[in-house]
Amino acid sequence: MKGTILICCFLSLMVLAITEETAAEEDVQTPILRDRSHIEETLRLASDKPAGNAVALHRLREIYHTAIRPMEQAYKYSELRQKMITDDEIASKPMVVLLGPWSVGKSSMINYLLGLQDTPYQLYTGAQPTTSEFTVVMHGKKIRTVEGIVMAADRTRSFSQLEKFGQGFLEKLIGVEMPHKLLERVTFVDTPGIIENRKQQERGYSFNDVCQWFIDRADLIFVVFDPTKLDVGLELEMLFRQLKGRDSKIRIILNKADSLATQDLMRVYGALFWSLAPLINVTEPPRVYVSSFWPYDYTADTSRDLFKREEISLLEDLNQVIENRLENKIAFIRQHGIRVHFHGLLVDRYLQTFKDKMSFFSDPELVFKEIVDDPDKFYIFKSILAKTNVCKFDLPNRDAYRNFFGINSVNSFKQLSAHCSYMGDCLLDKIEKAITEELPALLSTVALGKNPNPSSCDATGCGEIPKDRYRGH
Ligand SMILES: Nc1nc2c(ncn2[C@@H]2O[C@H](COP(=O)(O)OP(=O)(O)O)[C@@H](O)[C@H]2O)c(=O)[nH]1
Ligand SMILES: [Mg+2]
Question: Out of 82, 304, 420, 447, which residue is the most buried by the measure of CB atoms under 10 Å away?
């Protein structure tokens, strides 16, 4: 009798435990998805406005090809900076790159912004270091993945330059194409997280160089942190060093804020500032967006209103980048033109000094070596800096020129005065005209086209786009 009662008790306990477990499983299996309508609204995804201005793009390409490219080629600029601009790069969409430690929610953020959750092509996410690839999520007519080697081989893509990072890297590069309203306007790049205790060579390619390539081309860089990973190590320090000078593009995100109580969140926010302060050398404190970017609803009892407002602020930044895409592109080409112009003047100056120093009895090699070894003695950089509008910190240093002339003999170049056509068209005049007249004029036309109110020039000068570095609004 006693035994039967015991067995009955045991069985009912088992049934109870099983029912509770199934209920818990059901809870886990069906988390509530968050409403995404504000994403569509803030990014104006419903509007069918064409993403670009084809006429202005055509003109930009034309200016680049007729005024900047000839100077690049005449003075082999690509061998100094390894930088040539392809047509596809001119027409490419703004690029948003996500960087930060592993498992801070970078892939989840892309899934959330694109609404890929529970679709077969969602990016893989997990609490352990998951993403070991650089994943480029871009627009395409149909859903497909593109292998790194295919992306690199396709010269019409702006990613073909990535080939230079080697086969080891191309195996870690993957493209995902899909038809999507947001991807018609931007391309996202998901990166493998920084792992502090890993050596560069273990990855089989130079992680920093690849990051630098993406940083240089990104229009917006989300540096993502999570409350449990605020420690700053060598890799993160290196990353911030690489980000120097890109202040206006960086947005720091304290993600997963929904996983903490408000008081803890404040502490973590302070700690993040404290860790980042030595890495960011700016006078203004950076704007940190505190929110949670994943598809599931905010945990109960967290500051959901604040998180949502922060999310909308970040989305507005993204929208700005989309809207200003053409202006940014023109400014980028102009910046590039200024560097190419400077390079041309500098090579010309090296040639001129060489010519002046040479006499009938001198050894050309020794003379040129003396100039290359100590250009300051001959006022090479100073004389050009005085003439141009370039900041000296923006320039390659004299070692770069020593290497440059190590590969390219000085005799392989002609002086600028020799680069003129019979019609009197000179390379130098053309690039100067592009920098000072044509590109600023194109910028004004685009700005006016977007906002036909001429008084808007009062604010922007119709030439420069206001910088919104580390936006603090
Ligand atoms: N609580 C919470 N967890 C998140 C959030 N975003 C991502 N996660 C979780 O964090 C883990 C790492 O995410 P993942 O996107 O793979 O990070 P990644 O390595 O930076 O790409 C996953 O288990 C996610 O489910 C968030 O906003 N809140
Ligand atoms: Mg990931």
Answer: 447
HSE of 54, CA atoms in CB hemisphere, 13 A? 2
Q: What single-letter DSSP state applies at residue 347?
A: H
Atom index in ligand 1 nearest the CA of residue 112 equals 6
Residue 102 Cβ inside 6 Å of ligand 1? The answer reads: yes
Q: Is 115 exposed, middle or buried (0-12, 13-18, 19+ CB in 10 A)?
A: middle
Kindly state whether residues 221 and 86 are assigned to the same domain.
Answer: no
Residue by residue, DSSP assigns 277-336 as: TTT---SSPPPEEE---SSBPPPTTS-HHHHHHHHHHHHHHHHHHHHTHHHHHHHHHHHH
Q: Buried b vs exposed e over 151-181: b needs ≥16 C-beta within 10 Å?
A: bbeeeebbbbbbbebeeebbebbbbbbbebb
Domain stop point among 259, 289, 323 = 323
Q: Is 399 exposed, middle or buried (0-12, 13-18, 19+ CB in 10 A)?
A: exposed
343 lines ligand 1 (CB under 6 A): no
Length of the chain, in residues: 473
Query: Are 277 and 376 in a shared domain?
Result: no
295-323 pLDDT, tens per residue?
898 887 778 889 999 999 999 999 999 98
Q: How confident is the model over 422-463, as pLDDT tens digits?
A: 877 899 999 999 999 999 999 999 888 765 444 444 444 434
Q: How far is the CA of 171 from the centre of ligand 1 (A)?
A: 24
Q: pLDDT tens digits, residue range 397-410? A: 778 888 899 888 88
pLDDT mean across residues, the chain: 82
Same domain, 297 and 160: yes
Contact between 146 and 175 under an 8 Å Cβ cutoff? The reply is yes
Question: Which residues, in sequence order, are CB contacts of 237 under 8 Å at separation 6+?
Answer: 279
Give the separation between CA 169 and CA 165, rounded to whole angstroms.
6
Categorize the per-residue pLDDT at 239 as very low, low, confident or very high, splitting at 50, 70 and 90: confident
Q: Which residues surround ligand 2, an ion (CB under 5 A)?
A: 106-107, 131
Least confident among 107-116, 230-239, 322-331, 354-363? 230-239
Instruction: Answer yes or no: is 238 within a domain.
Output: yes
